[in-house]
Amino acid sequence: MVPAILKRTVLLWAFVLAACTVQLAPAYDPALVQGLDQTNTQALTLFAELETGSPASDFPSYAPRYAALIGQFESLRQQAMARQIPPLAKRLSGLKLVGKLCKSETDPAACVNTSPASLAQILSTFRRMRDTHRSAGLQPDIVVLFRGNYDPAIAQALTVENALKR
Amino acid sequence: MDSQDILGNMVAALKGELGQGYSTISNFIQNQGNLLARQAENIATSRATGSLKDDDELFAFFLQGLQQNAENAARSVVMLSALTIEQAWNAIAGALWGGVRAILTGAGFPANRLPETPPFNL
């Protein structure tokens, strides 16, 4: 026979559990997702135009395109960085299990708001691509490598941001 | 509503959330794995016979980018997993709260004093 006090304790805990939902990641931001979709289209268009290569002498006609892409991705990165992170989520990323991977000592949000890092990677790609285009031009295989640097990062940001819609 | 009904609701809600979460994470890992592997192959080819042959600086940039993308992918998996845990927990809490609410209102507790969803968010 189960003691009455144990029964009452189990019932109390069931009630407490039932009454509490948790939030372990930021809220969905439709404007951020829309911005990512639009800027991604512009980036893919630039890659398509450059896939056969481009000499340094052509750079001036592409300079405004690089500036627009870098500006838009920087704005999206700031938007993603500025949003509120639920306190429970920050505590979760401090767990020993993920502490090393998540660099929780220096950035408590590194594993619960991953898009800023993915967008920083995209920015670094376009800045380097712009500088290479300006100084030496772009060979087709180098364009493929810049695209290869861009694709995983944008896929990370799009997947994570879309998953936040819950 | 009895404990079996509550348990049934909890299991059904949990199955849906975990299934969806697993599918998202599994597709993400597969996609990232393919992209990173292809990039590694392209870097190696370009270094051996292409434009990276004589460009140490750009070669180092792409290697560093590959490493950074791999680390960011791993952190994204942690975030997607946290999201799945959140949804699983909330599904359990929702089903439990629904059961508690049904039992209490059945016992005469005024329904309008009990919210339809769990009242606290941690």
Explain what the structure shows.
The complex is a heterodimer of chains A (166) and B (122). Chain A has helices at residues 4-19, 30-50, 59-82, 87-92, 96-102, 115-136, 140-163, and one strand at residues 20-21. Chain A is an all-alpha fold and 166 residues long. Chain A has one domain. The longest helix of chain A is centred in the middle third of the chain and has 24 residues, at 59-82. Chain A starts with a helix and ends with a helix. Chain B is mainly alpha-helical. Chain B has one domain (3-113). Helices cover 80% and strands 2% of the residues of chain B. Chain B has helices at 3-49, 56-106, and one strand at 120-121. In chain B, α1 (3-49) packs antiparallel against α2. Chain B is rod-shaped and about 80 Å long. Chains A and B meet through α1, β1, α4, α5 and α6 of A and α1, α2 and β1 of B. Chain A: Residues 1-27 form the signal peptide. Chain A: Keywords: Signal.
Tell me, rounded to a whole number, the average pLDDT of chain B: 89
Oligomer: heterodimer
In total, how many beta strands of chain A?
1
What's the tally of helices of chain B?
A: 2
Structural classification of chain B: mainly alpha
What low-confidence regions of chain A span 5 or more consecutive residues with pLDDT below 50?
none
Helix proportion range of chain A: over 70%
| Structural domain tally of chain A | 1
Helix-strand string of chain A: HEHHHHHH
Keywords (chain A): Signal
Signal peptide (chain A): 1-27
Which features does this protein show?
heterodimer; A: 166 residues; mainly alpha; 7 helices; elongated; B: 122 residues; 80% helix; 2% strand; signal (chain A)
What's a quick, concise take on this entry?
The complex is a heterodimer of chains A (166) and B (122). Chain A has seven helices and one strand.
